[in-house]
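Researcher: Structure for this, please.
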Amino acid sequence: MDEPVLTRWMQLELGRMNEGIVSHRKLLSELLIEDRPVSVTKAGKEYRFRKEIITFLGEHLPAGIHSRLKLPILFFFDSTVNNSLFLADEPAFRALLLLGELSPLRVMEEGRLWVGKPIVFALMRKYPTIIQIMMR
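Model: Predicted structure, token format:
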């Protein structure tokens, strides 16, 4: 298989893997006022947020971040880095710091924060529906 064909095929497969990713991320402030917090995936399906997790975030994060934090928080998979995912969202980084989920010694470099996969997976278990991993 020549390289352009392989590249097109890989892009097609990555698109399929990302179909469950939310296409329109909503602000925490928007989700807090919804009776049934939902959004839509790239495949056009309903994505339901767990209301109790949205409520928890609303109660444990300062009001100033409610209008800046878009959910779900997206971590990105980079095939050139085996053991980490990156976060490219400063308000999400701030929220995770305020929740005590990341060390205050961490800093974003060049707009990215690299986080070990085990930490991201633990966050996904602790905050179901709030964290998604996007393939690039």
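Researcher: Any notable elements?
Model: The two ends are 21 Å apart (CA to CA). The longest helix spans residues 3-17.
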